[in-house]
Amino acid sequence: MKDVELKMLERAKALLESGEVARVIGWKKGDFCHDPSPASFESVEELDSFVYDYFCGANLSKYLIQMSKKEGKTAVFLKPCDSYSFNQLVKEHRIKRENVYVIAVECLGKLDIEKIKAKGVSFVTGVEVQDKEVKVTTPYGEEVLSKPDVVLTKCATCNKTHQVKDEEIILHERPERDVNRFEEVEKLEAMTEDERFAYWRAQLSKCIRCNACRNVCPACSCVKCVFDNPASGIAAKANDDKFEEQLFHIIRAFHVAGRCTDCGECSRVCPQNIPLHLLNRKFIKDIDGLYGEYQAGETDEGKTPLTSYTEGDAEPNDVFKGEAK
Amino acid sequence: MQEVTTEKKEFTPNIVAFCCNWCSYAGADLAGSSRLTYPANVKIIRVPCSCRVNPTFVLKAFQQGADGVILCGCHPGDCHYVTGNYYTRRRMALLYSFLNYMGIEKERTRVEWVSAAEGARFSAVMNDFVAQVTALGENKRLTDLRVKEGE
Amino acid sequence: MQRIGVFICWCGSNIAATVDVEKVAEVIKSEPGVVYSANYQYMCSENGQQLIKQAIKEHNLTGIVVGACSPRMHEATFRKAAEAAGLNPYMVEIANIREHCSWIHKDMDEATEKAVILVRTAIAKVKLNAPLTAGESPVVKRALVIGGGIAGIQAALDIADAGFEVDIVEKNATIGGRMAQIDKTFPTLDCSACILTPKMVDCAQHEKIDILSYSEVEDVKGFVGNFSVTIRRKARYVDETKCTGCKICMEKCPSKKGLNTFNMGLNTRPAIHIPFAQAIPNVAVIDAEQCIKFKTGKCGICQKFCGVGAIDYEQKDSFIERQYGAIVVATGFKPIELTAFNEYGYADNKDVITSLELERLMNAAGPTNGVLLRPSDGQHPKVITFIQCVGSRDTSGCGKPYCSKICCMYTAKHAMLIREKYPDTEVHVFYIDVRTPGKNYDEFYRRAVEQYGVDYIKGMVGKVYNENGKLMVQGSNLIDNEQITIESDLVVLAAAIEPEPSVRKIATLLTASIDTNNFLTESHAKLRPVESPTAGVYLAGVCQGPKDIPETVSQASACAAKVIGLLAKDKLKTNPCVATPDETMCNGCSQCANVCAYGAITYVEKEFRLGGGKTEIRRVASVNPAVCQGCGACTVTCPSGAMDLKGFSSKQIMSEVDAICKK
Amino acid sequence: MTNEERVENINRLSGTDVRKCMKCGKCSGRCPAFKDMDIKPHQFVTKLGKGQIEELLESKSIWNCLSCMACVERCPRGVAPAAVIEAVRDTVVRMQGKNGIKAEEIPPIVDELIPQQLLVSAYRKYNK
User: Fold this and answer.
1) Measured between CB atoms, does C637 come within 8 Å of chain A?
2) pTM of the predicted model, to two decimals?
3) Confidence bin at B8 (pLDDT 50/70/90)
4) Cβ neighbours of residue A192 under 8 Å, at least 6 residues apart?
């Protein structure tokens, strides 16, 4: 990963120095080794704090909505999963494509510090990844963890590939994987209504309405969100009533249905660890099953499943038929 | 008299029916002028096209205590606005499937295509839906999701 | 402050018998915002409207709710009344307490309770109504008539006589339709061709009428006053402008074995042909499937003999696009297929024929030159049995559930004509009922019985079978409670009629509603019988329901009157209930334009203030209110909720939901 | 059993709605056993409609009906006269305290196309 980071830094410097771009969007070091955050670098000096490591899970595409409006070009580092969000935003005319220079970078799966901590490993000062092993350094010594156990949830079932690149920095080959991202959705579907209700009630009652899921979501990028708009009739008031979380999450999931690229940021940022991606994935699975496989963000043009139709589409009353129960 | 009071206490569901102006609302009118009865707890909201029905309206109805929500529009291919109900069909198929995924009884939601000429069908559909929701009982899930005290 | 007035209509006893109207008006008085509440016997009457107008003025009402019949019935009436009293017509809401309440519920308490909720719901909505002003759209002064049968011809002539341009699109090579195939017409027995063909000629000669024969409607866009229609002109392989109708090609054509569809397949015709002698336009057409030139590449005889060089084997389908203000649908009917009725032996016996086939057999221009000869051996039939209701009034799934309406009369006509021309012929008619509601109709039928001695048998045929060359017709005679078998030479089936199947596609193109039997639905069964619910689309003839020639002609003229009324206007008021985006919230994501069936949404770059003296340019949606039809598809697609629909805003619908659910 | 109960029972057994009959007579027009019937197929429908079942219970027709189903096949309104006749026949058999069918007598292999009712009525008749 270090070699990748060096190449990225080199390119960022060159682009800024030549004046080809006015800024570079990447990640900068945090207070700890595991909390880098998205940042915009406008000069070579600022690049001192640039970082790209196993904790750079954040999706940078959403920042381009504002950045691409600024004067001068903006260079951005996109991981495979981020490139879908980027395409979707270009499709919706939110990003000015001509103002962006995309550098595709490799990603071999990012780590989840919460999962590492959950393994009883605290005060992490560094990590080293070797195939399926993660060597974690702490003041108390080294610990070796299994990588699949500690990657971000969104990375566990990812097999995305780069969809956009003006150039690419890839040094390590990604192993091919055969994953079923709908496994957990299927598990829920196999439950009874009562069990599913209990499951979601337990999950969503944890929600504190911090709006992190909404704010991080590249599809939730409305100029003004319906939940902030008193004219919508569903505007959220603080601690409105007991129904609120559920309403919020249903509407949110529906609003991004057909547009969600399954980037998994919602679940990554949720402070309450609600598996929000399972809501979006249900829509994705239904869309795939009913209207044919569709991956939002695969291209930057065309209609989404909810803005198109065929004459022989399934009837709403029939979608439950054939369900084993 | 005693009997009457107990009867009144029996559960009668509150049903919100969204009907498109051109087919289903007219179908409901025809059911009326043909004196084809259906329970009084069905109340109709007129919308220009089934595609005007936002999922938030459906959720709002449940939030406010409706026990069932039914959406009626022109038969696919016969939409007054050419393609409106095709979008409705996709939206509602996904929404209803999703609500069920959240544990909401699938019997509470329905989409039916009723043409202006199908008064009898309108009445039959409403009778059937009311019976279905009555059998299910009160909607509790969409009005309360949080773990309540005492549970 | 809102000042709402509520008006509860009794509708005579229609509402008042099941809804306690006085109680509703009383309860509603205490609703917040309601300052006036009244009930009256007939709100839609002059006095009722006066009551509304007065109340609006006296109480300074800002909005009114009328609890009455369906808004589809009288919304326009009450809006007009409000407007006359100085209130914006869109500040009126109707609570449908008749069709959706009093007529379907029996229990008074229950119905009254529901009526109160429905009125409350309307109040909740009207409080959020905003005054709206209708826009204007221009009217194209040209009408399209789809179908060139008697309905289309009559409508076209009437419209053209009023001075408007009319195009007739006819899918066959000639106009004339079914009436051209008929021999005589009831109840006067005049010759069908004698009264139809002059009208056909009038169409051809009328300077305002353009006949597009051998053409079909391919696509329809637009709306009332401004339809844009694409018409496919099918290749007839004959240049319409050159052909003189001399028929030399028909004489010389070596491929003469094509079934003559005009004669119901009872004889043959050449590959190149003019359907019948009086065809309009009198221009030949080549049946490419039958033509040797098209099949083998050799022949070309017609081209050699055509004196004017009209034959063009290279002709291709062409498309024209024209604008119309109004469209008349007059697509007509066909007899049903009899495949599901084995019992009548139609498929196995040449001498079991349909009534329309009999028309051709009796027509002087038909395959037998008007001499009634049976198809199997060309002999004159001595015993003829008619069977009525073949496939009509049939709910078993084999036929049609409705009465085809014309069969009783034409069967009486056939029986009478046969007895008149061939008095030695024995004629029997099996009937279930004889239906003759029409001027001079029953008298006509009775003449068949009394004057011509036609044997009417109350009963139905169970089986027709061939025994030694005779058709044995076995049926019941219910009056005598016996089963009889009639040895017949010819059996005539009064097959049910159904709408011409192409009407389905046309209904879809026009978004005109259609019933389960494929008849187009009229806007109101009694009061708007020739209008489709789709504005600017009118219905003439059997496409709307079974009817005979006099009724068809009346309906066609009624259509014409409606069309003339429309085309006489220079501008139409447009529906003000259109979509509008809140630009401050619009993302410019294009999702709304993706679902708009009318192309009403475009995008513009607009500058917005950001505060602090800064501005930004954003892409935002813009709706053309003249093109928007107000369906609302865009409002739901919009992720930010920026798009809303006037008259049916999200807030209005949500408040209706609230009012209904409020316990 | 009162007369009304019997009428109701016959209606229920026959599974047919006699009010759908439009009195066209097509059933009697086709019936191959018409001549041997004292009460004709269409009359079974009308008389049941009027509740006049005494005549039906005593009629010879119930034993002469072949259960060929031609009347059912032909009826344009979906009324089943043969089913009415069978229901009357069944009522008579039961009134005699019998129930002609024995399940084990039904041949193990029967042609699927033969209407069930034909088999059942045959047993009813020939076990009289």
Assistant:
1) yes
2) 0.75
3) very low
4) A325
Please state, rounded to an integer, the average pLDDT across all residues of chain D: 84
A133-138/A126-130 β-pairing: antiparallel
Judge residue C639's burial from the number of C-beta atoms within 10 Å of its C-beta, 0-12 exposed, 13-18 middle, 19 or more buried.
buried
Nearest Cα neighbor of C238 from C279, C288, C276 is: C288
Q: Say how far apart CA C263 and CA B26 lie, in whole Å.
A: 42
* Percentage above 70 pLDDT, chain A: 95
Q: In A, residues 32-71, which contact C (CB 8 Å cutoff)?
A: 69
Q: What's the complex ipTM?
A: 0.80
Please list every residue in chain C whose beta carbon sits closer than 8 Å to the beta carbon of residue B56.
650, 654
CA A23 to CA A70: how far, in whole Å? 10
D48-88 pLDDT, tens digit per residue, is: 999 999 999 999 999 999 888 899 999 999 999 999 999 99
Structural domains for chain B = 11-136 (3.40.50.960)
* pLDDT surpasses 80 at C625: yes
- Give the mean model confidence (pLDDT) for residues A229-243: 63
Three-state DSSP state, A198: helix
* CATH architecture type of domain C142-234+317-332+523-567: 3-Layer(bba) Sandwich (3.50)
Which among D20, D29, D78 is the nearest to C459, CB-wise?
A: D29
Query: How is domain C338-498 classified at the CATH fold level?
Result: FAD/NAD(P)-binding domain (3.50.50)
Q: What tokens were used for A311?
A: 């004459």
CA distance D125 to B131: 43
Q: Could you state, in order of their start, the residue ranges of all structural domains in chain C?
A: 4-126, 142-234+317-332+523-567, 248-305, 338-498, 579-646
Q: Which of C477, C478, C481 to mutate to test the interface with D (most CBs of D within 10 A)?
A: C478
Nearest to C578 by CA among C655, C622, C631, C652: C631
The pLDDT value recorded for residue C404 is 97
Tally of residues, chain D:
128
Q: Which two tokens stand for residue C22?
A: 């006085």
Contact C413, C189 (CB under 8 A): yes
Q: Do C476 and D26 touch (CB under 8 A)?
A: yes
> How far, in Å, CA of C153 to CA of C332, rounded?
12
> How far apart are the C-alpha atoms of C408 and C187, rounded to whole Å?
12
B77 half-sphere exposure, CB direction, 13 A CA radius: 10
Could you give the 3-state DSSP secondary structure of residue C470?
A: strand
Q: pLDDT tens-digit profile of C345-372?
A: 999 999 999 999 999 999 999 999 999 9
